[in-house]
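Input.
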Amino acid sequence: MKDNLVTEKGLGGKINFDAIKKLKFDEKGLIPAIAQDIDTKAVLMLAYMNEESIRKTLEEKKACYFSRSRQELWTKGLTSGNIQEVEGLYYDCDADAILVLVKQTGVACHTGNYSCFFNPIMEK
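Output.
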């Protein structure tokens, strides 16, 4: 993972704020963000970020998303205690999605499940 926004291995713990300029936000100024547990590798949730929430995430090292329903910034776990401490933030090859590597405290899903992805469509 060479091109990234923040990662201890790739940037020595430093933040590459210039990488934000490479991101392709949609017409509403949002980009999809996938949260993944850095220890278990479980995909936890899909949310959206804007430039402000990305900067806040990088500065505070806690996942901050943009709530499309409330039209405001939302720091994960602020009210529930289910905090996501950010260990790394990467963008994909097209620069139109973000991967947020987190240490998850508690559950990630508002339903009480650890991950939001618990409804199978196909299983092997």
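Helices lie at 8-11, 51-60.
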